[in-house]
Design a protein that fits this description.
By secondary structure, this protein is of the alpha+beta class. It folds into two domains: 222 residues, Hypothetical protein, similar to alpha- acetolactate decarboxylase, domain 2 (60s Ribosomal Protein L30, Chain: A), CATH 3.30.1330.80; 90 residues, Winged helix-like DNA-binding domain superfamily/Winged helix DNA-binding domain (Arc Repressor Mutant, subunit A), CATH 1.10.10. Helix content is 26%, strand content 36%. The strands form four sheets. An eight-stranded mixed sheet has the order 1-15-2-9-4-5-6-7. Strands 10, 11, 12, 13 and 14 form a five-stranded antiparallel sheet that branches. Strands 3-8 form a two-stranded antiparallel ribbon. A hairpin with a 5-residue loop joins β13 and β14. α7 crosses α8. 40% of the residues are buried. The N terminus and C terminus are likely disordered. Bound molecules: zinc ion.
């Protein structure tokens, strides 16, 4: 179990224990990256499926450039693109965001005639209290199923809410035979995770599926299992420290994530701040290895991942910056 130790040059696991529970080694849900990084426009893949799938055989996420909805069913990574077509993805597919676990000893119940609210209530009754991350699998025959996917995005990336408003495609299935996999996260009042019930579907024919908005169960088996620990796997050491940064410094990172590399003037325009103020923020971040300048004096976020396409020169520069910073 666990993430490939070679996932990135500087991988780090932040074990965020939920209150009031002891946990064993198998009792973990893994999340690649942070929800707010994705939702702010962090759509570039930061790890391959081969690197993240060892973390579990059950889960969901998306792929590089937000090019569809990912459902991991029995260890198989299926992507549903914006035309509604399901496709088994190759191990070298990049992903910017994924949540994975393994259901070792789930509690199961046969359910019929329930909508999502009914499913939610049944999940509650099965696990007792929503004290952790609940992995959910729902397999059977459904009616009134509403699914969606999104088109691949190109930089400069827009926030997720804007993408959904313009580039979301929805389908309704009067009858759907298949499986829904996903999670119910507790509402931790943090932007790092996506709270509430979140399911991605895949039909039995492995032809279609997507992010689920609505369904009614005709007959299905509901399986649930609670993890009491979330392991946030961050592809970049600077991201961890970034969480501790003041909001005005995080806004610099956010704009660069959305827009790609920007020079100081371009960055100041996007931030709505003066050149002096922008220079001060950028230098603070660059001094600490969070940002680097390219050969055209454009600032970019420091990412250290074997999945990133980086020049040797930049790699060397980052090594120097970060090693120097640690000394
Ligand atoms: Zn989704």
């Amino acid at each position: 179990m666990g993430i490939d130790p070679d996932l990135v040059a500087a991988v780090s696991l932040d074990h965020r224990r939920l209150a009031g529970h002891s946990c064993d080694a198998g009792d973990v849900t893994f999340q690649l990256s942070l929800a707010h990084v994705l939702l702010d426009g962090g759509y570039d893949g930061v790890a391959t499926l081969a690197e993240v799938l060892p973390a579990g055989d059950h889960g969901l996420g998306t792929v590089d450039r937000l090019d569809g909805e990912l459902a991991v069913v029995d260890g198989e990574p299926w992507r549903v693109d914006h035309t509604g077509r399901a496709e088994l993805m190759s191990p070298d597919t990049l992903t910017p965001f994924a949540v994975l676990t393994t259901m070792n000893d789930p509690t199961t119940r046969h359910v019929a005639g329930l909508d999502l609210e009914g499913i939610s209530a049944t999940v509650d009754s099965l696990v007792g209290a929503r004290s952790g991350v609940i992995a959910i699998r729902l397999e059977g025959t459904f009616t009134k199923v509403v699914l969606r996917s999104v088109k691949a995005q190109n930089p400069p990336y827009r926030p997720f809410a804007e993408v959904v408003a313009t580039d979301e495609v929805r389908w309704e299935h009067e009858r759907f035979e298949g499986v829904f996999v996903g999670f119910c996260f507790p509402d931790l009042q943090t932007p790092d995770i996506i709270g509430g019930l979140h399911l991605h579907g895949l039909d039995d024919a492995r032809s279609t599926g997507g992010h689920n908005y609505a369904l009614t169960v005709e007959h299905a088996e509901l399986s649930v299992e609670t993890s009491h620990e979330i392991a946030l796997t961050l592809p970049d050491r600077s991201m961890i420290e970034l969480l501790e940064l003041p909001a005005e410094l995080r806004s610099v990172q956010r704009e660069l994530l959305r827009a790609g590399a920007l020079d100081t003037v371009g960055l100041a325009q996007r931030l709505g701040t003066s050149i002096d103020e922008t220079t001060e923020r950028v230098e603070w971040l660059a001094d600490r290895g969070f940002l680097t300048a390219d050969d055209q004096d454009r600032w970019q976020i420091t990412m250290r991942s074997q999945s990133m396409r980086m020049s040797e020169r930049l790699e060397g520069l980052l090594d120097e910056l970060i090693d120097g910073h640690n000394d």
